[in-house]
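To whoever picks this up:

The parser on our side crashed when reading a file containing two proteins. I've narrowed it down to the boundary between the first structure block and the second sequence. Both blocks are reproduced below exactly, byte for byte. First block:
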Amino acid sequence: MGFKCGIIGLPNVGKSTLFNALTESNKAEAANYPFATIEPNVGRVAVPDPRLEILGKMGKSEKIIPSYMDFVDIAGLVKGASKGEGLGNKFLGHIREVDAIAHVVRCFKDDNVTHVSNNINPLSDIETINTELQLSDIETLEIKKNALEKKSKKGDKLIKNQISIVEKLLTNLSNLNFLQNNEYSEDDNQFINSLNLITIKPMLYICNVDEKSVQNGNELSKKVDAYAVKYNHNSVIISASIEFQIAELENKEEKLEMIREMGLNDTTLTKVVKSGYNLLNLINYFTCGPKETRSWTINKNTLAPQAAGKIHTDFEKGFIRAETISYEDFLKYNGEAGSRDAGKLRQEGKDYTVQDGDVMHFLFNV
């Protein structure tokens, strides 16, 4: 399991350039006019995790298999998208299918790159997009409410409760508030998630700045960062043009050298993946052996049997116990044998909550 991250924003903010850099491809057309991308481009990339290669060498593994995530480059939204402007309904439908949203915001000035409103104002751009997302969800909720009211029978508490939830969501969105699913019970949240609303998806703001602002940002990106903090979202600073130059280099050492020359610590891919994992509360555990070393993505607070089920459903059904070593101990004691001798290999049962970096071996019987 990885996750699917949709890249959205107004036309000409750098979405397709960013997509090409993230996926190291020229799959997405980057052009200086609206709607260069009609059908969404999808690129699958390996999740960068230096621990994986280290474990693979220590385990003398034949194969190293990373976790993967999908990036979806969705066409630029415009004002009126929720009413079909600029093929908006089609594009909004694409957004509903992703797990998280990366909203690219233009935080640079360049007379050679047009802006749909001829004015560089990132907060205004964000509000334009957010309004369209909210209006689209309002329409979805109104359709759902009508359907529930037709099905409603006297005394049917479940449907009455669902109608009440939909009405509350409609009130929130009509006041242009973001939805917060921590306001509801677990059962209510299951119903809300089934509605596949856009405005409840985790949001990451990507500030696309000019090259000289890539280290510390600029006045425009600082406004976006403050906005993200206010609404409990994440934000990162990138320069799509720099990242695309880096992605075009074939030699890994050349890429690292260019990153260092720019004064950067991480590539955009690493920044976005880290932020995406935080948004969705994801972690990785590892399996390591002579045949393969592999990374597995799970939600935080996943118990050992459910983590085992990511490998195979039989592992979860017949779960007996998990032999577990922390990544740090695996490294310190030079692998499984050394960790076992040092007493660092633990036998964990069904109630064990898997931690990020755990190196695991599952015992099961079906």
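<<boundary where parser fails>>
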Amino acid sequence: MKNKKINMKVVLVAVALLLAISIKPLMNIFHHSDESFEVEETVKVEPVGPTFNADSAYAFVQAQCDFGPRAMNTEGHEKCLQWIVEKFKAFGCKVTTQKADLQGYDGTILKSTNIMAQYQPQITTRILLCAHWDSRPWADNDPDSANWHKPILAANDAASGVGVMMEIARLLQQEKDFPLGVDFVCFDAEDWGTPQWYNGNVEGETWALGAHYFSENLPEGYEARYGILLDMVGGQGAKFYREKMSKQYANAIVKKVWKAARQVGYGSYFPKSDGGYITDDHVPVNQKANIPTIDIIPYYPDCAQSSFGPTWHTLDDNMEHIDKNTLKAVGQTLIQVLFTEMDS
């Protein structure tokens, strides 16, 4: 009886070993096919850096909208241009502009101006933050077709990204001995892309024209450790899924930013799930400027109007649908990224 019991134990051990051997490859299959199985190191880190002021960022968004639509070749566009330049200068940044005549989808010549505001331009280690500042000339996704040729105010799809960057610039001006340089780039001519109602022939790129020009004509010797694009970062109900072009070109930066969001308590705004592949300003920055750059952009998987949210390219993209909580979540996450970068 004693030998029999011993043999049974041997059998049980052998079965356990076989199960372990067979289960491990199965778990590897799950690991590679679904990132929800990804085991991630969890380290509790206290929030660092200054407190992002959502009221201040909101005011910067409002100020841009006060100029009205800022579509290419309009009076509102030129007035807002001067305001953005002067505001970044007031926050101690060195500001340069990059002007170009670009051609729209229909042959229209677009008087484009990219704006670069550099915090501590003398420092060689630099982080790029960027957003587009021009507004969509047409509400071509509005549920009412009577509005398809009307310009939008672009509170979220333009002004929100610039507003968040301005608040970060304001906060950085108050910091002493900050060891990094930060470049705030406002891209122009992003939203003159072919409207949905246009039936003519179109050749070449029509979206993100300012970002393409910037990436092909970088300031001499310009380098950045990485870039973060902000697009529509103030909308109600926004959640920022991991954009797939960002993962393709700069997955390490995606992980860095989404981890920072959890560290400061805004993980619910940055779910550990993937969105789609988005053609946005970060694509030419990755492909032509060779700066690994990600896109923080909302994804609304259940929105019938658009996966970019119910106000995208509609007349409802106004201040009534800007949420200070969203601005805060994005802004404080970026502060965490910048101030933990100091230790990298």
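After patching the parser it read the second block fine. Strands lie at 94-103, 109-119, 126-132, 181-187, 226-230, 293-296. The helical segments are 2-33, 54-65, 75-90, 155-173, 209-216, 244-263, 282-287, 324-341.
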